[in-house]
Design a protein that fits this description.
The N and C termini lie far apart (34 Å). The protein has a three-stranded mixed β-sheet. The chain is built from three helices and three strands; from the N terminus they run αββαβα. 38% of the residues lie in helices and 25% in strands. It has one domain (3-78): GMP Synthetase, Chain A, domain 3, CATH 3.30.300. The radius of gyration is 12 Å and the shape is globular. It has helices at 3-13, 42-53, 72-78; strands at residues 18-23, 27-33, 64-70.
């Protein structure tokens, strides 16, 4: 799996205003901004991202994924 492939999988299942994916092929780091995160706790946001990957997390195709998930308002405040 490449960063571009992982990014495409997430983007196909979750509308993101901003999406960055980096990693070494086993350990991944994703920063996402989505309106779908509004009103959701961190664990719910992570579960939403994991849902876009389906069985890829269970089969070790994606071994580890660190997620930073923001709403558009949180992202704007962070980058102000």
């Amino acid at each position: 799996m490449t960063a571009d492939q992982l990014k495409a999988l997430i983007a196909a299942g979750l509308p993101c205003g901003h999406l960055e994916v980096e990693g070494d092929g086993r350990h991944w780091y994703a920063t996402l901004v989505s309106a779908e995160f509004e009103g959701k706790r961190a664990i719910q946001r992570h579960q939403r991202v994991y849902a876009t990957l389906g069985d890829r997390m269970k089969t070790d195709e994606v071994h580890a994924l660190s997620i930073k998930a923001f709403t558009p308002a949180e992202w704007a405040a962070l980058n102000a």
